[in-house]
Design a protein that fits this description.
The structure holds three protein chains of three kinds. Chain A contains 26 helices and six strands. Chain A is mainly α. Chain A folds into two domains: about 210 residues, no CATH class; about 300 residues, no CATH class. In chain A, β1 and β2 form a beta hairpin. Chain C has a domain of about 140 residues: 3-Layer(aba) Sandwich (Rossmann fold), CATH 3.40.50. The chains are: A mainly alpha, B alpha/beta, C alpha/beta. Chains A and B meet through α1, β2, α10, α13 and β6 of A and α1, α2, α3, α4 and β7 of B.
Chain lengths: ~625, ~400, ~250
Amino acid sequence: MSFSAIVIQFLNGLAGTSSLFLVAAGLSLIFGVSRIVNFAHGSFYMVGIYLAYSLIEYFGRGSALGFWGAILLAGLGVGLIGIVVELVLLRRIYQAPELFQLLATFGLVLVIKDVALWIWGAEELFGPRAPGLRGGIEIMGRTLPEYDAILIVIGPVILGLLWLLLTRTRWGTLVRAATQDREMVGALGVNQAWLFTSVFALGAFLAGLGGALQIPREPANLLLDVTVIGDAFVVVVVGGMGSIPGAFLAAFIISQIKAFCIGIGTVEVFGASFAMSKFTLVAEFVVMAIVLVVRPWGLLGRPQAMPRHAGAAEERISLASRPLSMAAFAVLAILIVLPATADTYTLVLLVDIFVFALFAASLHLMMGPGGMVSFGHAAYFGLGAYGAGLLLLKAGLPMELALALSPLVGALGALIFGWFVVRLSGVYLAMLTLAFAQITWASVYQWDEFTGGSNGIVGVWPAEWLTSKTVFYFMTLLLCGASLWLIRRIIHAPFGYTLRAGRDSPLRADSIGIDLRRHQWIAFTIVGAFAGLAGGIFAFSKGSISPEGLAIPRSVDGLVMVLLGGVQTLTGPVVGAAVFTWLQDEVARQTEYWRALLGLTIIGLVLAFPQGIVGFVKARLPARLGGGL
Amino acid sequence: MNDRKLALGLVAILAGGLATGAHAQDTIKIGELNSYKVFPAFLEPYKKGWELALEEANKAGGVLGRKIEIVSRDDNGNPGDAVRVAEELLNREKVAFLIGTFPSHVGLAVSDFAKQNKVLFIAAEPLTDKIVWQNGNRYTFRLRTSTFMQTAMLVPDAVKLKKKRWAVVYPNYEYGQSATAAFKELMKKQQPDIEFVTEQAPPLGKIEAGAVVQAIADAKPDAIFSSLFGPDLQKFVREGNTRGLFRNVAVFNLLAGEPEYLDPLRDEAPEGWYVTGYPWDQIKTPEHAKFVAAYQAKFKDYPRLGSVVGYAVVQSAVAAMKKAGSLDQEKLVEAMKGLSHETPFGNITYRALDHQSTMGAYVGRIAVKNGKGTMVDWYFADGAKFLPSDEEVRKMRPAN
Amino acid sequence: MSVLKVQDLAKSFGGVRAVQGVSFTVEAGELLALIGPNGAGKTTCFNMLNGQLRPDQGEVELGGESIRGLAPREIWRKGVGRTFQITATFASMTVIENVQMALVSHDRRTLGLFARTAGLYRKEALSLLDLVGMADQSERPCGVLAYGDLKRVELAVALANGPRLLLMDEPTAGMAPQERIALMALTAEIVRARNIAVLFTEHDMDVVFAHADRIIVLNRGELIAEGAPEAVRANARVQQVYLGSGGHH
């Protein structure tokens, strides 16, 4: 790269920094103050672009006032949406267990996407260039778009304004205090509800503004929400939760790395050429993994005050009551005789449900008793699935053996990643699992010769004797049923108690001789094995495996299932998996706008059952009956 | 409590959905699956296309004396869901066979599912070469002009220009990789001194357009081969225009002439680019004129390429049933081999050799007229002429 | 031989000497109180003994064996039980399960994947709870207990590994005066019967003078007095420190 090329790529990186910072800043505020994992933040950004597009068309493409007015109005409009969402939806579920709000925002993402499709249509809408800023600036014989130069300025300006807001106003002091310690704000006699609403509104405004400002650079399209949300979370965590300067620094580092990977172009390594731009697929997640391993609270973040109680009090667990055991046996009996009457597709759907029940239960073992939330659980599911597929096709193992080894593949991945993961806690731990999952995903996605790249692997069919759907159904019922039983045993066994001990009070656990990290690491590995088995069965039930098997949406599905059923109970994830899988199948057939219907259903369930479905049932059963749920 | 009622109400609606299923027994059901919600820009016109063809087929009396019904499902853009949906179509809806799919990995998974279940599958849209070659199987046929074919269609013009220094840019997944590999191979054969000076592979949907344009400019290419599409293409075009990348550089871009990708660019459509596409308003063949007239009458909208694909895949399905005279899978497969029928793009034939249809594409250059992008100097490239030799195909395709 | 022998212990934080040159011993069956005004270095000193802080200098011996620099969980394995200023129990478990957990850990069975924890060491756990007067509440969740009862549960947990030494950080903090006396009386009775050495810090001088066999006084990181309660009470420097710092306990 010549010197002038370096200068220009640096400026490109700065423009990218501003873009990334604007999306992340709002998320960081919301995340920091209310601990809401706001999946809908990317949707706010997307709505910002669409609104700006419509407003510019309305004011006329040529007018500068119209252009900038539209951008500001779009931001304000999204801020207003944020207020409505906070007041109507989130406010009702702040008392729910930690992370439960994630489920509501997940439903919101689905709804917003379909609403945007309904309003703006399927085709991409590319806004105009900014009036008066259509050209480029000559710099050392190269051209930088004038609008990029403006963006380079806007980012730091907004950083400055936010900094003033946070350090020079009473509101800002409260926000910073709440970021450090939520309960302190309540103790100061501050109206917490008002604080949360205003922070959520500001965050949504920033997301909308960030989207609107991209209008000359990015066409409005329906994939923006998912494209943006991952990046935004990475920036927030790398920078340190709630730290606005940290978000800026993280955005700067990530944007520059990407700009220079692209600028370097093709490199020769040992005679093979590699396009460095391919690294941009996963650059931010590699940065996040490194930062979290070295600095567990992000670049400019500070250790969080330990939440003294996370949402509702931790639930006790107890052995199943007699009526409950009988109910479980009755369900099992029905499942055993079902193939005699049900049609083939019911069996296919039930196989999916069993597989996801196991997947969700393994995540629950980690989240519930283990107290470690994973945002990247799909990694182990996917590793199991790919492991099974590759052992069958590349190693030529018999199908039965390939399936039997799939838990080991999942466990091996968890063993390696887990060593790093258990050194963190809370959201940072969750984000490190996400980083590892994304790195695994990117490797699988790009390693064409071995994993089939983006196409994945086909031809992963079960052995001859298992091709009958009924036989495969029984095999799945047996494997998943036995695994669920085992997970239940583990939770009631000393190991499960030890995990809960560490979750309830790390201090006390340490002082009764428990090496918590070691137990968490083992738990992580066990959980990886169960997820791997689920993945292995999944691969053989579908005949193929693709990178989606370990991508973010699969991890999110797992979280949704656990939360929907109820994270505090053992049967919660199983019920959640069944309800979610069935809903998805059923809703998709009802309407063209099935995503919105699914989203609304989830929001409805969230509002009706803020403890999860099973949690709701349990709270209404006599303790004698509900104890073992 | 109101919320609870809301939730219960929703559940009730859903449960009500279970009670459907009273379909007429005398229709022939065709199972259709596609990623409607993931790629709506292409697939909404596609859906209109097959709805039109279905209506016409039934107006003409259906096939085998029965009306046709298409049972359509969303596959969510991933192979796992696609296979589940295919199971539902086969086992619960009892469809005669399967058509559809858009992304390559979904197409491949459903293709393998078809092979496993010995059921006919006409892949409408997936571009991947593997679906008919490396992963080809007895039960899968593919309608659309493949990555290799479309790339090969651009090569003659590229060779004519005698440009030495080439840059390539492609979305980092199988389609972009195969297009690039095919382009390099075909060009090297005809122009051995060709030099590829840089290669940019941005993630699909996440191009850092400014940096990519700058990096390509720094490599000082004489020409660029791109397989970008959708938002990535639009961002690339705008940054390239602003930064002057396309001045004095010839650009070849797969698919960029398709209305789906050309129209959002409006007056910024990059003039002079060599593209494959669909100049729908300029094609005057009777079969196409008839199609456009019917389409516009029904939908009050102009057709996109997806409309043609959706329309033609149903034509293929109908023709196959007619020729087979039965719904027996083996007879249908045999009928598909060498099946010829009319489409808006003229006659196509499903080659017995590799089950690829000879559907062609329009090759031309982009121009801006009346503030909109359009294609000029275009010609129709017959798909049959842009396939590797039979010998090469046999080598790639496994014996069934 | 002394159960705990501390020699020339020192710790600094960024140039500030929190503890310097502290030496003392604790004998079996003896209750030793560590007192001093706020900021005297009691907590630092305590945390160097229980493994949460690594001393800059000095030696800590348990029954003649060095435990300097060991992790808290390793020190526990050597026979040291602990209670905390703010109780630390497992809120999602019942009273008896808290004690069972400690017993399971003591027998190194925490990796067990199949046994039902509820059935393990029930008798032992019940007898420990009986000892601290909590047997009748054994099935109640810890999350709902009164604070004084939680302190008793902690004591039972601390006794689960049959310790040689108990380290009790402010054992009566946050309790009503009546409860304080009762808890310390109970503690004293148990440790004397079992010949356990106890080192405790305490703010409440009534508790200290009622139950400590011996007292050591820390001020500005240094040991300024050591001896029987009466001697310490009469010590001029101690009086000066407490009166001078405004303390009047």
